[in-house]
Structures are given as structure tokens and as C-alpha cells.
């Protein structure tokens, strides 16, 4: 899953007696020792979802019991209508807290449960969506971590893998998608007397058996989708979207198919294990806050089909999502964690593998440098604050697993896996992975078994590395003092071992020229580097090979701040910027020093993929981290730079697009708006810049409703109303904020994921500090109503809608809420991350 939180508290989360119970690790272990699940044969009835809310299912589970006569339970959330165990009727009234008791098990058992679910509107495992542009209905499922129990009866834990076979009845005009290919689709028919009387026609879709899969990676999606299908590289590749988004999917088809074909080839070769079936589908669905690695049928937010012309960073983000979910076909689906304490390994590995693959497929993408300039910085942010936790954590129950879908799990984990590959060497790293997949295919495995495979392939003892990097929280700091590296750990313990480079650079007419590169493996707190050449800049962690905070020597710092843009390597430039941003967050540099550093890099940046993230960093420093009195001056400076980048004769289309969008966020003068209006007029079909320009005008209290209505009239995006809502939300008035708030929190008018991020950016304009502080407190009020919503929906609201400005009272209140014993783990993490960030922002502004 992508879509990147918390250090779990001790013990399970308390839930009301009538709420679905959260499966504990002890319960899962006991059930896995007792049962072996052979197969699920599941019938799903979607007919009532055409005009209603009810999902119906019959689950037939075939399983064996190692201790005949024992008792257990099956998971099922919803209404149980009937159930039999080995032909004997069970008491459905005994179903409570999402569990149905099973007593007196035989050696071989067949359980049949008929159930239904009406919670199909909250995004909790099942979501029914009506496309407002054409009233077509779409249904999708996403079951991680324990959502399958909301759709049908199952043993919902990752180490009880089984074959799944689905048979689904749905309205005749719908397509139905699942993990495997359909082997039979009936002709339209009236299924029962009620349908016959109403004149409703349906089809039965039957799907072939899946391999042995965990319950959380199976899927049923349905609706009147538009389909694109091509045979490539020995696979049948499918792309699906709702009908109203057909033009955007067709625009992106060639790129999506190219990446899918190349990714399947890359992973199949690297892992010595081709993808296990011919069919591989991507399904773009509405109102989803991320993506999900269902075997052979990946679902992801259709906001990835950008309604304006996507920027280079948009395309790289989509490629990363595609490859992340694809990597899960091996790490997660083929070989699955036994329990959620190894969730980090699933997600960190998929994130690592996505960048690894993109770097190989598109070498000019500078994929690792872009990661360092974007996602890795988010990992550093959480790891420096109170929401940090070890990469590997105890997970007493599934509710706490939900908390660990965070930046530590995904992004720090990704960086750490990359440095493990650098430590072992790619050839030995790959050999370890191949051995791991060969030994555990279609089963479950633990971290210890993976590390054992790496140790055998490399000949290195890795227990110490594992304990140092995975079992301790926080980021070490490496400081260069003379020719000595000093390493300090935030917990006061023995520093971790770091394998890194120190790049030595001398000033010259051509910029900063390399005079040496010194590889060092640190040991303890002090490591001597007597062979370090003399240089004007000693760039610690050149190449970004270790996850570490860097503190240069004083002379190097001055060169870094003024001349980082003249470094010859893209990753080196990003390391310089990351160092400055880290020192800003720690109160060791002023916002002015950091702003000038980022601007200086942008003035020389030659890698198109880095321009957009660096512009975003400069914008954040200018409008959020800077003292209020300096914000207009810095925004004007950034707008001028963005305009120059857009106009430069050497700037390609990708750089121009990123520069113009930054100009729209930073515009302050009539000249800026004239430049934007001219760009909008020159590209009337690309509505993104037009919406951003109207948003900026509204934020400056120059709202133009007539222009908004005109743009709504010509924007083909079926959800253009959400962009219009964002324009209204940007206005600096209490009434505008109140109306927008109601639309987001009450009416559910803003889809999860990217639309929520865009809306939040419109609403929380940092310059509107005094107006927004009460709304920051309202945000805390809303969090109590999130219990019961799905993982992706909760994550989207609490992380993406978090305030970007506040007062000291908010910080105190947010921390108190985070520490409350009844706080949802994922909410706790989001509050700790947001409060830490904003405390640092307030300090920097002062």
C-alpha cells in the first residue's frame, strides 16, 4: 500500500463492546497454530449497490484443524443471516464484536456464512461511489489490514493464506474485476423474481482460482469501467477507470503500459521469479486515499490521472506508486509477513524497490536524488520528533498496525534498505532476495529469515546491524571536525554504524570541482579520516548513502550555503539542501540562510526532476518558516525566480510547468498575474494553472466568482467543483472558511488523497494566520468523530488536512489529545508530527 504513523502504546486499544474487536497477536498466533485454511469459495451479490447500500456475500471456507474438538472463531463484520459448520446450523445471534464462535471443530471442516454489509459509504473496506457528472455507480474494496472481514466471513490474519475463488453477480452494464481472470461471464439475465418483475438484468462473473493469498490482498471491484488492454511482455495488461475519466487514462496509457511491462521484467529478473499469472490490472477508482497491492489487480486513486497536464514530478510520483504496488506482488503477496510487526518490511521494501526499479528503467530520472529531495525529508521530519519510533515495533493488535502506515515505516525504512544494499553490494543483496523468495514462495516469513538469507549471501554477520538500525528510534548526527567524524545518537547510546562518503570539493571557475571521495564505515562515536584531502567543501554523506543528520565544519557550511548549486552531482546538491533544512528545523540556521541556499541551487539546477521539489521547499521556507514581515519580500523573490525559470530558453516543458505553478502560489504583483494570465491564455486546455491562479487571487482577497464559473464551464474534469471549492476556501474571510469547512467535514465533498491535499493547501494559507488559528482548534475538535472510518480515509483527513499554522495553545492541546488513552493510534501520530513541525515553525518565525 502507498499512502504514506505511530509508536504504539502498550496493550490493545479499548473498543466498545459492540464494536468489531481488534485481533491480537496472541489470538492470531493461537489460531495459526490450530488451523490450516485450504480455500475460500465466495459469492458476492452487488445488485443492491446499484441504487442502495447493501453488499451481500456467501463465504464457503474449507479448512483443517490440528486438534479436533477445539474451538475458535471466524471474523465477520456486518449482519450474519445464516451460518453452518459441517452442515450443522450455527446460532447467528451469538455473532458479536465481529466474531462468530466455532466450537467442536473436526479434522476437516467446511464453514458457510451468509452475511451482508451496509457500511459501504465510509471507505471502510468497501466504498460505493456515485460519479456526480453522470450518476454512474462504482464499487471498490481495500482490505489492509483487516477489512476483508467486513465483506465476508474469513480468518482475517496474514499468516492464514488460502486459495480464493470468486463468483460475483452485478448489474449487467457493470464490469467486475478480481485478482485473477474471469473464466466465465454469463449473458444478461433476471437473477430472481424481484429482478424479473423490475426488469433488472444482471450478469454472473466467475473467476479462476488465485494462488495462496492472505485475506488482505484479495479484491472485488465493479462498475461501468472504461477498459484498455494490451498484451505486452508475456502479460495481459489492463487499465481501468470510470467513464468520465476516459480522456485522462488514454492520455497516460502509453506511459502506464511501458512502466508496467518494464517493471514486471525488472522484478521478475532481479528476484528470479516471474510474476505468477498472465493478467495484471491497474484499476483507478474514485475517492481512494492511496493505492493497494491486491494480487494482480492493483487499485489506486484516480486522482493519479491528473486533470491538468501532469508535471514531471506528477509522472514520477505515479511511476513510484505503480512500481511500489508491483513490488508487493513479491514482497507481501508471494511472501507475506507472519504478523503486522513486520509491516515495515513490506512497505519499506516496496518503497525501496520502486525507486531501485525506476532508477534502472529510466536512468535519467535521477530517481534516488528525487527521493532524497521529497520523501526522505518527510522521514527525517518524523524521526526527529516525538512521533519517532523504531522501524520495527511491537504490534499487540491490528489496531496498532494501522498506526504504523507512516513515514518511519515507508520512508526511513526505504533509506535503510538502500544503505543495506550499499553495505552488502547489489549482487549479494540480490542473491539474498532470490534465496528468500525461492524458500518462502506462497508462504509467510519473518525479518529474521530475510536477514539470514542476506547474511548467507554476503558472508556478513547482520545481527548487530539489524538491532542498531531497526530496533532503535531517531536519527544519528554526524559532524565533521577537522579530519574527524563525530557521531552522536539521539538516545545517548552507542551510535549506529554508518557506511558513507565524504566528497571533497574545491572552488574553481567551473564551480565546485571534486578533488576526492572518501568512503568510510564509522565505528562508535569517533572515526578518524587522516586521508581526507584539503578542500573548500567537505560534503558529508555525499551520495546520500546513509540515513543521518549532517553537520559540516564551519568553513564547509559557508560554502554549502552559497555555492551548493555549483556541485556537479544532483544527489550532492540535494544533500546540501537537506542539511540546511535540517539545521533550520533544529534552530541552527535562519530561514533567510536556508531560503538563499535553496534559491542558489535552483538558479543552477540542471535536472528537471529536481526543479519542482526544490521550488516547493523554497516556497515552504518563504511563506511558512519566515517571519511574517519578511514573507512578502521572499515570495516576490521566489516569484521572480520562477518566472525566470519559466522564460529561460533552456527550460523544457517540465521545468516551465513547475515554475509557472510556483509562480501561481507566490504571485504578489500585477506583473506576476499578467504573466500567469498570458500562460493560461496560451494553454486553455491545461486548467491546472488557471485554478492555481484563481486560488492565489482569492487568497489575496481578489476573488473573481465570474472567472471561477467560466472555468467550471470549460473544465472537463468531472470533479472540477472540488477545485472551485478550493478557490473559495482560500478567501481570507470567516464566512468562506466556514462554508468550506462544512463541505469538507460534513458534506464529504472532497475526495481522499490528492484532492484533499490540494484543498487543504487552499484552506490553510500561512499568511492568514490570525484568521486560521481558531480553525486549527476546530481541526482538533473533528478528530473525535473519525473512529470507524477506513485506514485510507482516516489517514487522508488527519495527515493531509492538518493545519500549517497555529498558536501555542494549539500545540499544548494537540499534545494532550495525542497522549489521551483513547486516541486512535494513527491520529496520535499525526498530531505528534504536526505539533512538532508547527512548534519548530513558530520558533523559526520568531
From TrEMBL:
E.C. no: 3.4.11.2
UniProt enzyme class: hydrolase
CDD domains referenced in this protein's UniProt entry, alphabetically: M1_APN
A Pfam family reported for this protein in Swiss-Prot or TrEMBL: Peptidase_M1_N
UniProt keyword terms in alphabetical order: Aminopeptidase, Hydrolase, Metal-binding, Metalloprotease, Protease, Zinc
InterPro entries: Aminopeptidase_N-like_N, Aminopeptidase_N-like_N_sf, ERAP1-like_C_dom, Pept_M1_aminopeptidase, Peptidase_M1, Peptidase_M1_aminopeptidases, Peptidase_M1_dom, Peptidase_M4/M1_CTD_sf
Occurrences of domain ERAP1-like C-terminal (ranges): 539-838
Peptidase M1 membrane alanine aminopeptidase domain residues: 260-466
Cofactor requirement: Zn(2+)
Regions annotated as coiled coil: none
Domain Aminopeptidase N-like N-terminal intervals: 134-217
Catalysed reaction equations from the record: Release of an N-terminal amino acid, Xaa-|-Yaa- from a peptide, amide or arylamide. Xaa is preferably Ala, but may be most amino acids including Pro (slow action). When a terminal hydrophobic residue is followed by a prolyl residue, the two may be released as an intact Xaa-Pro dipeptide
Positions of region (Disordered): 1-21
GO biological process: peptide catabolic process; proteolysis
Protein's UniProt keywords contain Transmembrane: no
GO molecular function annotation: alanyl aminopeptidase activity; metalloaminopeptidase activity; peptide binding; zinc ion binding
GO CC annotation terms, alphabetical: cytoplasm; extracellular space; membrane
Family as reported in the entry's similarity comment: Belongs to the peptidase M1 family.
Protein name per UniProt: Aminopeptidase N
Amino acid at each position: 500500500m502507498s499512502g504514506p504513523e505511530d509508536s504504539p502504546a502498550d496493550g490493545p486499544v479499548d473498543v466498545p463492546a459492540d464494536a468489531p474487536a481488534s485481533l491480537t497477536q496472541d489470538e492470531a498466533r493461537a489460531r495459526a497454530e490450530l488451523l490450516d485454511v485450504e480455500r475460500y469459495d465466495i459469492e458476492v451479490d452487488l445488485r443492491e449497490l446499484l441504487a442502495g447500500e447493501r453488499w451481500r456475500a456467501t463465504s464457503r471456507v474449507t479448512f483443517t484443524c490440528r486438534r479436533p474438538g477445539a474451538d475458535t472463531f471466524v471474523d465477520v463484520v456486518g449482519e450474519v443471516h445464516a451460518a453452518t459448520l459441517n452442515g450443522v446450523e450455527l446460532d447467528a445471534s451469538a455473532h458479536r464484536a465481529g466474531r462468530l464462535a466455532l466450537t467442536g471443530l473436526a479434522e476437516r471442516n467446511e464453514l458457510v456464512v451468509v452475511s451482508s454489509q451496509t457500511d459501504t459509504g465510509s471507505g471502510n473496506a468497501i466504498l460505493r461511489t456515485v460519479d456526480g457528472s453522470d450518476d454512474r455507480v462504482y464499487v471498490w474494496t481495500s482490505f489492509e489490514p483487516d477489512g476483508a472481514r467486513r465483506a465476508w466471513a474469513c480468518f482475517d490474519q496474514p499468516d492464514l493464506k488460502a486459495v480464493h475463488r470468486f463468483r460475483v453477480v452485478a448489474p449487467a452494464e457493470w464490469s467486475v474485476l478480481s485478482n485473477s481472470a474471469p473464466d466465465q461471464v454469463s449473458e444478461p439475465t433476471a437473477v430472481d423474481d424481484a429482478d424479473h418483475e423490475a426488469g433488472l438484468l444482471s450478469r454472473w462473473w466467475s473467476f479462476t482460482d488465485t494462488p495462496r493469498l492472505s485475506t488482505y490482498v484479495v479484491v472485488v471491484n465493479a462498475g461501468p469501467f472504461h477498459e484498455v488492454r494490451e498484451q505486452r511482455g508475456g502479460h495481459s495488461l489492463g487499465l481501468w477507470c470510470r467513464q468520465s475519466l476516459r480522456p485522462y487514462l488514454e492520455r497516460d496509457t502509453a506511459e502506464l503500459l511501458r512502466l508496467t511491462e518494464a517493471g514486471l521484467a525488472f522484478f521478475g529478473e532481479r528476484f528470479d521469479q516471474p510474476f505468477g499469472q498472465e493478467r495484471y490490472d491497474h484499476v483507478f477508482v474514485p475517492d481512494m486515499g492511496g493505492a493497494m497491492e491486491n494480487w494482480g489487480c492493483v487499485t489506486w486513486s484516480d486522482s493519479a490521472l491528473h486533470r491538468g497536464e501532469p508535471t514531471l514530478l506528477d509522472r514520477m510520483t505515479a511511476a513510484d506508486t505503480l512500481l511500489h504496488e508491483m513490488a508487493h506482488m513479491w514482497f507481501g503477496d508471494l511472501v507475506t509477513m507472519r504478523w503486522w510487526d513486520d509491516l515495515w518490511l513490506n512497505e519499506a521494501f516496496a518503497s525501496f524497490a520502486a525507486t531501485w526499479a525506476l532508477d534502472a528503467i529510466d536512468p535519467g530520472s535521477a530517481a534516488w536524488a528525487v527521493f532524497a529531495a521529497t520523501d526522505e525529508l518527510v522521514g527525517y521530519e518524523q524521526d526527529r520528533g516525538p512521533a519517532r519510533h523504531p522501524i520495527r515495533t511491537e504490534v499487540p493488535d491490528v489496531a496498532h498496525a494501522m498506526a504504523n502506515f507512516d513515514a518511519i515505516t515507508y520512508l526511513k525504512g526505504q533509506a535503510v534498505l538502500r544503505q543495506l544494499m550499499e553495505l552488502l553490494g547489489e549482487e549479494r543483496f540480490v542473491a539474498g532476495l532470490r534465496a528468500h523468495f525461492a524458500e518462502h514462495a506462497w508462504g509467510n516469513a519473518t525479518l529474521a529469515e530475510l536477514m539470514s538469507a542476506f547474511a548467507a549471501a554476503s558472508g556478513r554477520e547482520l545481527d548487530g546491524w539489524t538491532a542498531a538500525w531497526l530496533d532503535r528510534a531517531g536519527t544519528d548526527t554526524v559532524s565533521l571536525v577537522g579530519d574527524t567524524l563525530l557521531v552522536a545518537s539521539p538516545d545517548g547510546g552507542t551510535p549506529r554504524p554508518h557506511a558513507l562518503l565524504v566528497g571533497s570539493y574545491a572552488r574553481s571557475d567551473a564551480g565546485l570541482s571534486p578533488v576526492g571521495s572518501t568512503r568510510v564505515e564509522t565505528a562508535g562515536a569517533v572515526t578518524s579520516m587522516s586521508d581526507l584531502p584539503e578542500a573548500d567543501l567537505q560534503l558529508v554523506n555525499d551520495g546520500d548513502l546513509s540515513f543521518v543528520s549532517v553537520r559540516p565544519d564551519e568553513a564547509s557550511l559557508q560554502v554549502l550555503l552559497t555555492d551548493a548549486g555549483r556541485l556537479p552531482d544532483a544527489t550532492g546538491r540535494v544533500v546540501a539542501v537537506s542539511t540546511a533544512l535540517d539545521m533550520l528545523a533544529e534552530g541552527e540556521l535562519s530561514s533567510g540562510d536556508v531560503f538563499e541556499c535553496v534559491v542558489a541551487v535552483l538558479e543552477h539546477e540542471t535536472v528537471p526532476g529536481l526543479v519542482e521539489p526544490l521550488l516547493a521547499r523554497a516556497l515552504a521556507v518563504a511563506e511558512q518558516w519566515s517571519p511574517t514581515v519578511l514573507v512578502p519580500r521572499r515570495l516576490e523573490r521566489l516569484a521572480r525566480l520562477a518566472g525566470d525559470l519559466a522564460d529561460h530558453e533552456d527550460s523544457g516543458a517540465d521545468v516551465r510547468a513547475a515554475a509557472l505553478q510556483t509562480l501561481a502560489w507566490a504571485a504578489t504583483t500585477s506583473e506576476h498575474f499578467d504573466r500567469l494570465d498570458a500562460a493560461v491564455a496560451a494553454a486553455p486546455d491545461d486548467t491546472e494553472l488557471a485554478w492555481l491562479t484563481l486560488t492565489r487571487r482569492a487568497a489575496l482577497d481578489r476573488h473573481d466568482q465570474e472567472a471561477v464559473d467560466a472555468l467550471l464551464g470549460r473544465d472537463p474534469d468531472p470533479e472540477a467543483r472540488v477545485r472551485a471549492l478550493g478557490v473559495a476556501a482560500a478567501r481570507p474571510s470567516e464566512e468562506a472558511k466556514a462554508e468550506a469547512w462544512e463541505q469538507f467535514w460534513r458534506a464529504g465533498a472532497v475526495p481522499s488523497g490528492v484532492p484533499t491535499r490540494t484543498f487543504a493547501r487552499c484552506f490553510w494559507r500561512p499568511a492568514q494566520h490570525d484568521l486560521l488559528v481558531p480553525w486549527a482548534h476546530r481541526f482538533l475538535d473533528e478528530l473525535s468523530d473519525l473512529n470507524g472510518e477506513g485506514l485510507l480515509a482516516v489517514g487522508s483527513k488527519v495527515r493531509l488536512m492538518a493545519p500549517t499554522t497555529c498558536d501555542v495553545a494549539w500545540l499544548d492541546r494537540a499534545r494532550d489529545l495525542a497522549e489521551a488513552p483513547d486516541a486512535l493510534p494513527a491520529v496520535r501520530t499525526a498530531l505528534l508530527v504536526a505539533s512538532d513541525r508547527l512548534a519548530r515553525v513558530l520558533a523559526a518565525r520568531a
